[in-house]
Amino acid sequence: MWALLRTTLAQWQFRQASLLASSLAYYTVFSLAPLLVIVIGVVGVLFGQAGAEGRVVEQLQHFVGRDGAQVIETAIVNMRESTNSRNPVGVLFSITFLIVGSSNLFFQIRRALNQVWNIVPTPKHGFLYFFRKLFLSFAMVLMIAFLLLVSFILSAVLGYFVDALSAINSDLIYLWKVVNFLVSFSVTTLLIALIYRVLPDVRVAWQAAGVGGAITALLFSIGQFLFGQFLGHISLGSAYGVAGSLVIVIVWIYYAAHLLLLGAEFTQVYAERRGTPIVPSEQAVRVPQMAIASPSLQEK
Q1: What are the domain boundaries of the chain?
Q2: What residue ranges of the chain have pLDDT lower than 50?
């Protein structure tokens, strides 16, 4: 494992990590509200609109704090109101905007992962390729909603049993914390593994994607704790005045993007060590690491 980590970090230093993470953070800021509107809409089928929004915002507080979560909640409300139209044409435009807006983030994740793995799509794709990628990107949005729904249901069911057991023995309350972490960790692992497996223009073994997803989920858990400590000791929000809460959200997204791409680098190293290297799909080619930064090779 240590050899894998050393190799991962050695290769990582040659990547344009900060540039890629900055790009993902930029697109995430604009895609987050439409993405969460759709996610809350799907989860709200079971929990109700207000209940779903409350649960999602509560989860966000664990990452960006109360003030950051309030900024995102305000963006969600404003986005929902701006796309709420009774005119048939307005409804069509609203649906299109939400789909394209939420899917754009996963388009950018695909491009970033392609660059980390030295993959460039071939120039000629056609509309079929474009709509296939749009479908996959929007499918990831729905997958997030589904996994959150499963996570909320499991948490509710397990919480009921833990409450019953804790009435017998109060020490069992710690069991709930462990179970809740395992549920969250498993959902995050599965989501990241799907991102590595489905989005880029590559073929990657499920084992490599799963291990990479687990390592990245672990990095997210550690990163969440460290970021919380960072916010507790550094008044980052206060330094930027009224924009402080938004700055906190952007910094967390930038930090999370680094972890996602670092996990992708680990996945590639692990796959090579296992003898199942990541290979380009039929619509892409592998290029030298230095060549992929050339504008002429970037996807149009």
Answers
A1: 16-116+125-276
A2: 293-300
